[in-house]
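re: the backbone from monday

yeah here it is again, tokenized this time
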């Protein structure tokens, strides 16, 4: 009986703490606006997109359907929180895109900043500075 109670408690701990699951919330519970009205691309992001053959449409695909990789994110980052979203494009590219969530500036309301993008598992030659 004691062993069974311990097993039940262990299962409850796993269920309620999320142990054994990915650290990625569902899209519905995302801390970033998955349908941001405007994406602001840094010069670095455009350079990486060019040399890795990644389009703005593919960046939007990852934003809308990708999963947050909290190990590569900085939710407490300064000046803005940064989130690494990962997923596959319709063309099959496995991408990680780093988005910053600008706060406190009226000109960036309902916007996200695309900091960089990476095609996972593929090495591209880039001269981005």
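seq for it, each position gets an aa:
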């Amino acid at each position: 009986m004691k062993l069974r109670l311990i097993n039940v408690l262990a299962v409850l701990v796993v269920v309620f703490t999320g142990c054994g699951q990915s650290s990625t919330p569902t899209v519905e519970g995302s801390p970033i606006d998955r349908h941001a009205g405007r994406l602001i691309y840094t010069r670095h992001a455009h350079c990486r997109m060019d040399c890795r053959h990644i389009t703005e449409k593919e960046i939007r695909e990852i934003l809308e359907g990708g999963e947050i990789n909290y190990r590569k994110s900085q939710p407490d980052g300064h000046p803005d929180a940064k989130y690494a979203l990962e997923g596959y494009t319709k063309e099959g590219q496995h991408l990680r895109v780093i988005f910053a969530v600008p706060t406190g500036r009226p000109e960036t309301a309902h916007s996200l900043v695309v900091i960089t993008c990476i095609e996972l598992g593929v090495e591209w030659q880039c001269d981005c500075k």
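The longest strand covers residues 111-119. The chain has three helices and five strands.
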